[in-house]
UniProtKB/TrEMBL annotation:
Keyword Cell membrane included in the entry's annotation: no
SUPFAM superfamilies, alphabetized: C-terminal domain of RNA polymerase alpha subunit, NTF2-like
Domain of life of the organism encoding this protein: Bacteria
Example of a GO MF term: DNA binding
Record-given protein name: DNA-binding protein
Length: 189
């Protein structure tokens, strides 16, 4: 079940998030796919028809708890892992630069360390460390989230509209072992 001939820009956009077959589209809504730079309504219409011909469909709703201006793919299912959910939501909100959502995930006194051993404190500092505005982002791929006790880590890739990519790895420490704890320390690579 290969992708139909949707044009080079749309095909390349899907390739940036590793979608090469029709069945890989089913976890996403049509609106999610439209967020990819290079995918337009005509390509989504063609994909919809190709999916239906195979008895497949786009998802009816996103599995994310809030709307994003860019497509989010990867390790998104958190099942029964509250801290993985917090890390997922924090990553999305930080690239969106959404202070309201970040407040739900981070402690007020969050400390952020960067590769040059600088320490930064607070939400505004975290937002200023993101090197790209949400309007420049086509997709966020969360490759993996691991959590255990007070600790978590995640890595992934941000693809900009111009096709360039930012790879990241982060390590998070939570305030406590409790399932409703917020992130208190972040190391960003």
């Amino acid at each position: 079940m290969t992708l139909p001939n949707i044009g080079r820009p749309a095909r390349n956009a899907l390739l940036t998030v590793n979608i090469t077959e029709l069945k890989q589209l089913t976890p996403f809504t049509a609106q999610d796919i439209l967020k990819l730079h290079g995918v337009g309504p005509k390509a989504v219409e063609m994909l919809t028809k190709a999916l239906e011909a195979e008895g497949l469909y786009f998802a009816e709703k996103s599995e994310l708890p809030f709307s994003t201006p860019f497509m989010v793919v990867g390790d998104l299912g958190c099942d029964n892992a509250p801290k993985r959910r917090v890390v997922r939501d924090y990553l999305i909100a930080s690239w969106m630069q959404d202070q309201a959502q970040l407040t739900k995930c981070l402690s007020e006194e969050v400390t952020i360390e960067t590769t040059n051993s600088e320490s930064h404190h607070g939400l505004e500092a975290l937002i200023s460390l993101r090197s790209v505005s949400p309007e420049q982002i086509s997709s966020l791929e969360i490759k993996q989230i691991l959590s255990h006790g007070k600790y978590a880590s995640a890595h992934g890739k941000v693809t900009k509209h111009d096709g360039s990519a930012i790879h990241f790895a982060e390590f998070q420490t939570f305030e406590s072992h409790k399932k409703d704890a917020r992130i208190s320390h972040i190391t960003i690579y």
